[in-house]
Amino acid sequence: MRSSAIVLLDCQTSLEVHVAPHSSVSTHILPGEPPVEVILRRNARAKRFSLRVSRSDGRVSLSLPVWAPEAEAVAFLRAREDWVRDHLQDAPSVQRARVGAAIPICGVPRDVVAGTGRSARFVGGLIQVPPGPREGPRIKALLTAMARDRLSDAVTRYADQLGRAPGRMTLRDPRSRWGSCSSKGDLMFSWRLIMAPPEALEYVAAHEVAHLAEMNHSDRFWSLCRRLYPETDRQRAWFRSHGADLLAWRFEAEE
């Protein structure tokens, strides 16, 4: 998902800079209430600091050149603490996929309850999952399977309308897009689309299938997309307003 905002500032080197080898990724805790974890990433191509707060999940990251002293990066961060906290207030709260939660399926919140067996199931309008530290991954596996079924059906329908044959379809968990189409016609979708209303999933399927004919975002592409799915504009607006809520869900195993 797109970041809320970006702050850029050229790094200024001093006359005496001695840079020891650094890990490419580290973390810094911004003290305060609450404390904020910031991911520091060194980028060989970066020439300046780049501070971001993700609208999708509230993650804070600071990119810096490989030669920049970490202390200088931390000073840059602390000087902009108010900016960071202001933008964190706009990010959706993190939601954990576990027993007791209510996870949307096709746009409808579904209660997660304790179940039996080794996998999560969707039965009687409830998400049943065996209790334990792997509740999140098991729920993710269920949602992924459901998303695959619905997206496969939608892709087939729209591809038939277009008269084009799609390539391989894969499901992933990208943070910046809901789907993509390669030059070979292979389609990728976010499995989180199963949490969106059916109309939103249908739009993304039609959008990517339209790329089989128009590998661009020209007027011709959007005309074709709207022909395949007339509610294109309304569903694009839905993702702008609610997409971050889907990305706020966490499905990691509990420690």
Task: Please report the number of helical segments.
Answer: 6
* Computed CA radius of gyration, to the nearest angstrom: 21 Å
N-to-C SSE string, H for helix and E for strand: EEEEEHHEEEEEHEEEHHHE
Q: Are there runs of 5+ residues with pLDDT below 50, and where? A: 1-22
- Share of helix among residues? 25-40%
Mean pLDDT: 88
**Ends apart, CA distance between termini:** 27 Å
Number of strands: 14
How large is the share of residues in beta strands?
25-35%
Structural class: alpha/beta
- Major sheet, described briefly? 5 strands, mixed
The strands making up the biggest β-sheet line up spatially as 1-4-5-3-2
Broad shape = globular
Task: Provide an overview of this structure.
This protein is of the alpha/beta class and 255 residues long. The chain has helices spanning 70-79, 81-88, 135-162, 198-210, 219-228, 232-247; strands spanning 3-10, 25-30, 36-43, 48-54, 60-65, 95-96, 102-105, 108-114, 121-123, 126-129, 169-172, 179-181, 187-190, 249-250. The strands form four sheets. It has a five-stranded mixed sheet, with helices on one face. A four-stranded mixed sheet has the order 7-8-10-9, with helices on one face. It has a three-stranded mixed sheet with strand order 11-13-12, with helices on one face. α3 (135-162) packs across α4 and α4 (198-210) packs across α5 (219-228). 29% of the residues are buried. Mean pLDDT is 88; it is low at 1-22.
